[in-house]
Design a protein that fits this description.
By secondary structure, the protein is of the alpha/beta class. The chain has four helices and 23 strands. The strands form seven sheets. Strands 4, 8, 9, 10, 11, 14, 17, 21 and 23 form a nine-stranded parallel beta sheet that branches.
Length: 366
């Protein structure tokens, strides 16, 4: 009997120890599980840190903010969402900068690159509607988000600013660097509203200028095509002291229907049209390598005027001095209308040769 009691006591003690050991082991399992959960959370946090964009949204294309992971940006961007605009990249053919206008000295404004020069184009165009929209309050960069080449139709960003356009009358604009337009279609300065300022190139070079029918069209009237760095120049504007290099004007595939709307084409190495009302002066400008490609059926056009310096000179145009054009090539396969130019290839209308003093145009020889 005594032995039985001892045996039961030992059995109970063993069971107690086993239960206690299982409880401790279970506690360790729970703690280990908790620790594993904490590690998982930390790993998740680290993964989240890696996958979420560090900082604000970045640009993959002009005006297309996207984060570094490619996930959808659901909130509208503000001015702080755009990094500093990298103007060291070649001009893309659509982006324009107007910081020099907003923050600069209005009496003397300075352009340093292709983005600034295209900003001048859109500011003069903005003078037609009196306002234009600037989306980036930090860097004053205008983005063409839909790729149609028209910055004035953009909308939807918060923190947008309204900027008044200008024809730059009584304002001097200076180039501070050479500029490469990267052979992208360029809208000439003053296609809708005539440029009236003073443009001083300070001896710099603008190269790889390309104008196409789409970029040179006066979109307000829909019937005037301008080919030149400048489109329409008026009211005593002065354009001076720079070199244009490798200039190409593509005058082809123009509309042939509705001749009655009086389509006209003005082609000038420097400026397309010096206006009837004091068209201004061009002096000390060199054009090295000017190619005009006339092609296709031009039966829908009623007038084409072309010159190595100016397309059309108005009756009150002032004297143009010391302008030199070399390697002027005309690749002509067009049909439908004659092209007007003077005997010296200075200008498109033949009654204004007296406007050009100490000027020369040399045609390219094959």
């Amino acid at each position: 009997m005594k032995k039985s009691i001892i045996f039961l006591t030992a059995l109970l003690l063993t069971l107690s120890l086993l239960v206690a050991g299982c409880g401790k082991q279970g506690g360790n399992t729970t703690e280990s599980g908790s620790g594993s959960g904490e590690n998982t959370e930390k790993q998740t946090e680290k993964q989240t840190e890696k996958t979420e964009p560090s900082g604000t949204a970045k640009e993959t294309e002009a005006g297309s903010p996207a984060d570094t992971t490619g996930s959808v940006v659901t909130e509208e961007p503000t001015g702080e969402d755009f990094p500093p605009f990298d103007k060291s990249q070649p001009w893309d053919g659509v982006s324009a900068c107007i910081e020099w206008y907003v923050n600069g000295d209005f009496d003397v404004m300075k352009l340093s690159d292709a983005y600034d020069l295209y900003g001048l184009t859109y500011l003069v165009e903005g003078a037609a509607t009196k306002t234009m929209t600037c989306y980036d309050p930090n860097y004053m960069v205008i983005y063409d988000t839909n790729g149609d080449g028209d910055l004035t139709d953009e909308a939807g960003y918060s923190d947008q600013r309204v900027i008044f356009g200008s024809n730059f009358e009584n304002t001097e604009i200076r180039l501070t660097n050479d500029i490469d337009l990267n052979s992208k279609p360029f809208t000439p300065i003053g296609t809708t509203v005539s440029f009236r300022g003073d443009f001083d190139g300070q001896g710099h070079t603008i190269k790889n200028l390309l104008v196409t029918p789409e970029s040179g069209l006066n979109k307000a009237k829909g019937r005037l095509y301008y080919y030149g760095l400048f489109a329409s120049v008026a009211y005593g504007a002065q354009i001076k002291d720079f070199t244009l290099e490798n200039v190409v004007y593509e005058v082809n595939n123009l509309p042939t229907e509705n001749v009655e709307i009086n389509r006209k084409v003005f082609i000038g190495g420097v400026a397309a049209y010096l206006h009837e009302t004091g068209g201004g002066t061009i002096s000390g400008v060199k054009v090295k390598g000017l190619t005009v490609r006339l092609g296709g059926d031009m039966s829908g056009v009623v007038l084409v005027e072309m010159g190595g310096i100016v397309g059309h000179c108005g009756p009150t145009t002032l004297v143009q001095t010391n302008n030199v054009v070399t390697d002027f090539a005309v690749e002509d396969t067009h049909t439908g209308i004659d092209v007007h130019t003077d005997a010296n290839n200075f200008c498109g209308n033949t009654d204004r040769e007296d406007c050009f003093v100490d000027c020369s145009v040399t045609m390219k020889t094959s």
